[in-house]
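Worked example

This section walks through a single chain of length 226. The input is the sequence exactly as stored; nothing has been trimmed or padded.
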Amino acid sequence: MLVSESGTKAARVRGFDEKAMALLLRARTSTRRLDRRETLIPHGPAGGSLVLIQRGWAGRIRHEAGDRRQILDLLLPGDLCGLEAVIAGHALCTVEALTDVEAVRFDAASLISLMQSHPELTIALLDHAVHQTANARANQARMFKRSATERLTDLIHALVQRLRQMDASVLEPEIPLTQFDLADATGLTAIHVNRALKSLRAEGRITIGRGRMRVTDLALVQGITE
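Given that input, the structure is written out below as tokens.
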């Protein structure tokens, strides 16, 4: 069982069984807390380590001209990042904390050694990476949705599914992203996101308070995106 510094049970890697998790933990080196906007993994050769998002939300970020961010994929508790940096020695994008984050870091050399001697760990890591690639492709496809409301609702729907996979008992999942984060994840402006959120809130699908969105009408959100 993975335990945080506070002594409470923490997130396990999504899709890992007990054996794969136990193997991965052999390479664990440290647990670190980061503030929002801090970098977990920098783009380039300096990012050669695997990181587990234990608490909080992060994003794979590409910085464009004019200091505009594009959020390629959102990382939730139980998600890994940096596997390509471990294998190839080069991080393909920056990983940045979107909320306060607690992250577990794994030593690259130890991890490679474990992967060589335990193919079941390699398979588990590849399976996790395949699912993350699918999430990133879905996020790119979202950019072709016609309206701001369609893009935003599609993103909310995808995040709700991931959150409920983590805990099916949560009836009204919370999404702790700012309007600027939502804009960068959907290719919209913050103004368009604000208008779309107002529309969804007016229709009773979400509530917004204290910097968090709560999804209150899952059936209606799912119906829109189907």
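What to look for: The two ends are 37 Å apart (CA to CA).
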